[in-house]
Every structure is written in C-alpha cells, then in structure tokens.
Amino acid sequence: MPFDGDRAPTNMQITSAVIAYCFCSGGMLIINKLAVHHIPLPALLTVCQFASASVVVFGCKLLGILEMDNFEWARAKYFLIYVAFFTIGTYTNMKVLSLANVETVIVFRSCTPLAVSIFDYLCYQRAMPNLRSCVSLLLISAGAVGYIITDREFQVNGFAAYFWVSIWWVVLVFQLTYGKFLVGGLQHVSLWTPVLYTNTFSVIPALAIALLAGEVSDYRLAAVSLDSRAIGWLLLSCAIGIGISWAGFWCQSVVTATTYSVVGVMNKMLTVTVNVLIWDKHASAYGIGCLCFCLVGGSLYQQSPLREDAKPSESLDSEETALKPLSDDCEKFSDDDLPRLSTTKM
C-alpha cells in the first residue's frame, strides 16, 4: 500500500511511531558506544552499518518481502543533499562518543528543538511555540547550560572539548528539518524508500571519511582485535541501524520536525539510566539532575499547529501550499514543478 504523506495520522500511528523510534534511538546510542569501544574505527563502523542496511533492504525488495520505489534521479537528487549531512552527522556522532560521555551528546541533542522550531515556522508553515512550549524549550536549554558548566571535559579542555559535538549539533538541526521534507514533500511507495536511498548513497561518503581519517592504515587495522564480542557488537549495531533508519522516517512522517526533535530528547532517559550503571565515565549527580531538568521541560512541550494563513482552503490549487507531493511519475516533472520547502526563502 503506497505511503500517504498527506493523510492525517491517527493517535495510534503516532504513539506506535514514537515508541519504535525511542526504542531504537536509545539502544543505538549505547550499542554504538560499545561497538566503538571494541572496534575504535568509527568511520569504518559507519560504512558497515550503511552497507548492511542497503544490502538487507534491497535484498528484501528483490525477494518481494518489502515494497519500495526504484532508484530514479528525480527522487535521488533530494536524498543526495540529505545523505551528505546524514553521513557527516553519523560520523561526528560516533566521534563524539569516542571522546566524551553519553550525557554530553544527550544535552546538545536537547538544545535542537529551539532551532528546529524556527525552521518549522519558516519551512512548514507551523505556528511558533505557544507559551507552554516556549517555557518547555527554555527549561531544556537551561538544564543543558547547567550540565555543560559542570561537565569535566568542559572544565579541563574548555570549548575545544565541544568541537565535534558542535558540528554534530548543526548537522542534526539540518537533518531534522530536511528529513521532514523528504517524507512529507515526496511521495513514496513506502518508508523503506528513504531507508534504501539514504543508506545506499551514504556508503561511499562514509568510506571516503574512513580513508581521510586513516582508519584503513595497516597500524590502525592491526590494533583492532576482532574477537567474538567485537563482532557481536558490530552486527548488533548494524541490525539496530536498520531499525532506527526506518523508525526515524516513520516518526518524522507523523509528527512535526520540532516534535520529532523533542521526542528524541525525551527518550534519552533510558540511555542515561543504563549509562550510569555500565560506564565509569558518566556525569556527576548534579549533571544528571540538570539532564532530568531538561527532560521535565521536554514533557511540557505541545506540538504547534499549522498557522491560520497556512490551513488548507477550499481551493487545492492555492500557490500558498508549502509542500506538494511528487506525481507518481516523477520523471514527467520539470525542475520548476518539483516541490518546494516553503514559499518563504531561508
């Protein structure tokens, strides 16, 4: 059954999508940390995750298990933009996890809703957050600032300790905003289409990063011990990588970009709990308290509705529509006919 990005999702669909995404996201953060611990080659791990996802998903398409669109330029050019940032974001995320504690990633992640809410307004004609949601986002940011001040990496190395995580944060804001366009502005047979496109197109860029980082040099490879435990975490990270790729696009398709980013913050509580139990490099009690403060703020957030001037009118031909799905025959469209992120220039 074709995926319909225009039909309003039911509460059950929203709840199911959020739960699936939270489960995969929380698990991925911990499993990636363990995988990098046993195989300290983050870029090559990323290549394995992308390649395995592409092979498995496309293999299921050939076997008739999954339905998805074929590769076509009219669709691919939008995904190539996303993939460039998707690859950088995945690598920098794993780089951060190899240098800092998990809470550092979580706190920076908690600051993304503030930025994404602005792009929701500019790109998708959503209303700005109401008073309750503004308070929610400010509480999230306040908790993040409180954590950063007490974080030991920050105290020892200053802002230099946050170089990689800052790059990851900027890339993530773009991903959260543009990802909504990919599932809402382009018509797909199923959500497995963006999963196939993003993972397939990401293999070569990720491999290039591995080469530039020197991860394929003899001495780096010789230092890696591929015992059964390391291989196990690698395979598990590849498996959950497929899950989070699909669950992420599913969740993005049923909620706003800002809500999606808030959900990503809220699901980290499980990650924090597990991290405190298994890692000695976790935050102090005060730092955990600041993180909890962030999550309390996130629980107060309410999704912004469409602006009054953006609500559908009786005429479906209105030029004010922000996103229009592609026709089933994408190749018949010229570049001028393809969907736009918004009528407002950014």
TrEMBL record:
Q: Which residues cross the membrane?
A: 12-31, 43-66, 78-94, 106-124, 131-149, 161-183, 195-214, 230-250, 257-278, 284-301
Give any Gene Ontology cellular component.
Answer: membrane
Topology with respect to the bilayer: Multi-pass membrane protein
Start and end residues of each stretch annotated as Disordered: 310-346
Recite the UniProt keywords alphabetically. Membrane, Transmembrane, Transmembrane helix
Q: Does the keyword Phosphoprotein apply?
A: no
Q: Which residues form the Sugar phosphate transporter domain?
A: 16-301
Tell me, in one coarse class, where this protein mainly resides: membrane
Instruction: List the InterPro entries hit by this protein, alphabetically.
Output: Sugar_P_trans_dom, TPT_transporter
Q: Does the keyword Transmembrane helix apply?
A: yes
Q: Where in the cell is it found?
A: Membrane
Q: Where is the composition biased (Basic and acidic residues)?
A: 326-339
Q: What is this protein called?
A: Sugar phosphate transporter domain-containing protein
What organism does the record attribute this protein to?
Prymnesium parvum
